[in-house]
Design goal:
The structure is a homodimer. Chain A has a seven-stranded antiparallel sheet. A three-stranded antiparallel sheet of chain A has the order 2-12-13, with no helix packed on it. The first copy, chain A, has four helices and 13 strands. By secondary structure, chain A is mainly β. The first copy, chain A, has one domain: Pnp Oxidase, Chain A (Roll), CATH 2.30.110.
Chain lengths: 188, 188
Amino acid sequence: MKKSLGPQTMAYPLPAWCVGSYDREGKPNAATIAWGGICCSKPPCITISLQEIRYTYSNIMERQAFTVNIPSAEYAAAVDYFGTASGRNVDKFQESGLTPIASDLVDAPYIKEFPVVLECQVIHTYKIGIHTQFIGEILDVKVEEDRLGEDGKPDITKIDPMIYSTKARTYYRVGELIGKAYFIGRHI
Amino acid sequence: MKKSLGPQTMAYPLPAWCVGSYDREGKPNAATIAWGGICCSKPPCITISLQEIRYTYSNIMERQAFTVNIPSAEYAAAVDYFGTASGRNVDKFQESGLTPIASDLVDAPYIKEFPVVLECQVIHTYKIGIHTQFIGEILDVKVEEDRLGEDGKPDITKIDPMIYSTKARTYYRVGELIGKAYFIGRHI
């Protein structure tokens, strides 16, 4: 029996991604978000949603670029910190000890220590209620070489990304393999 | 050292969600997607992206409503089937043995057996390249009572949702708890 919980933002899984941006003075910033996802295959695009109040909102509006940095679970404390502190008050890179690297493709920094980064150029912004969607065209995906599988593709178990569980406000790792897509449903 | 993999759709984690819709004749359909995410807190909204070619695209354009059904790993074969077969050719509910329930809030069916459903009214559509984003306002979230924790909130470990690993084309379960959000970063 299903229980009605009312209108609210709830879905599983949600990501924990860190958005890299520069402010007007060129100070690099990282902000953790869970509202976002891939939104188009051609051109490859990802969407992230931010409230106007957030420091990163102004940064991206100004620079029209951002990076999506996918953390490993080993960086969970920094990810959580990036989601609670504001770049308006502190230098989050300095405080966390992580390293900003200037993208050579877009006007935004990425996080050296994280295993995967998407370098994104804003192609649309779209206001919905209290959030604004930034649609970023993915100009490149960079992955740490030791996180690739033998087939040269990123290996999710080596990347060890974080899952955000909303409402409970907890982070989880990726667990066991269920099976192959485009395969396990073939007998239905 | 990071390796450049070029512009492509890659991010971790991605969801495996089944979108419920009715066609013109009222036949219920379910289609699996990985391109989507929460996009606004107020009003609570979720976005899903579909290509025009997909049967579900026409259904939602016509009815301006859809459901997002979050599966448990136990339904992985049906989820995979919903992502490969087309409602244009078959009755996917009939073939899979799952049960469509008419939402009483929106003009779309949801999947009885899945633990979580979001009932969504389309408030915007937005074309980006080959995909169209459907922004759905979440009018209600319904969760199976036995998937709630003792605090009355959905328990991600009981929901046991599926994670889609793109490129490798595999499904994973949620794994171990990393820690509490808004907490584990407090010492930075």
